Give the backbone structure.
Amino acid sequence: MAVAFPAPGGNTVPVIPLRTPGMITETIPMWTSQRTLVPLRDVLELFPPNNWRWTVEEFDGMFGRLPTDITWATWARFQEMVATGAVVFDWNGIQQFADSVDQMIEGRIVATDENDSTVVQLDAFDSSEYQIVIDPAWSGAAAVVSAVRSEMVPRQAP
């Protein structure tokens, strides 16, 4: 059974897209034409294994099972950690987190490189779409854009 969790304070804080000149922005519908959800894990699979630091900056969603080490008693602490930027994963960790998420409703996950430069920003908007903002200087940017356009875009929202 999936459980919905509100953002801290019970309200969803609007996610403001990163608008950096020169960044590549791609949008992926969160629902296929067959009305099935495109899970966060599918979006992350567009990226190759990497050594980035993945930070969950905002999160409102549903878990089928809570991520490792998160219990009902610590959910409020998890939200506090998200609010302070303390929920940080490596590549394997962000995949495990995504595996535990049934649906990301609203939120932002940012991947930074060893220089603390943003390489990827992933936003979820109102259970309707994901927006991926990619630094074009990253060597894999063109491959991700190609994958989004060939694999994800044909699955248009209803």
